[in-house]
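In this section we walk through a basic example: taking a raw amino acid sequence and producing a predicted 3D structure, encoded as discrete structure tokens. The instruction is simple. Fold the sequence below.
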Amino acid sequence: MVILLTAASLPASALFTLQRIEVEGAKTLTPDAVRAASGLEPGSRSIFTINAQEVTRRLLRHPWIASAQVRARPPHTILIRIRERVPVAAVPAARGYALVDAAGVVLEVRAARPELVLVSERGRPLPWVAPGEEIPSPATRAGLTILPQLPEALRAEVAHLQVTRTQEVFLYTTDGLEIRAGPLRGLRQRMAAAPEILRTVRAQGTPLEYIDLSLPDQAIIKPRPVP
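The resulting token sequence is shown next.
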């Protein structure tokens, strides 16, 4: 017996019913979470009647998904390939901590502090933010651009980065030391010497209140007052 399919009947043919949804690129998300975000269900339709652009738009509504590709793999498979957003910092908010990527997009909000550097606007906690939204604070978004400019050795020690409305930068190390980093302009050059300065002052063993590196080629070291 020979089954003849015309070009017109091929897309809707039961021979190409969706049976399998493969997911590539998921690291934080589970494949099942990606499948759910796609809105596709096995057995529902032919793979040739699926609108890839529509499925892609649904996928991109998920806060963790930065880009997506949807392709048919005959006879029964749809391949979804995604690129996830990468959390680079956490922003203190009214009800927890917002995980954000480098562009300031909120990926999720957690009640407990995550193991990421905190970035915030100095003296102005964020109101509630929802996943998928962009952080509304320009100062906080500026802080996210600062992180890659810090020397790697210094970045590993920073627990909290704060930026004022006038874009003055303050760093707080994991042991509580305040570093007054000064304005955004020229920050990379001023911070280049910060790791060596930290090593030197810590080797001396003197408790410090802060280190001021806001001026080029100058370090002001303030010892902690003795009780």
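Looking at the output, two observations stand out. Confidence is low (pLDDT under 50) at residues 1-9. The two ends are 97 Å apart (CA to CA). In the next section we compare this with other chains.
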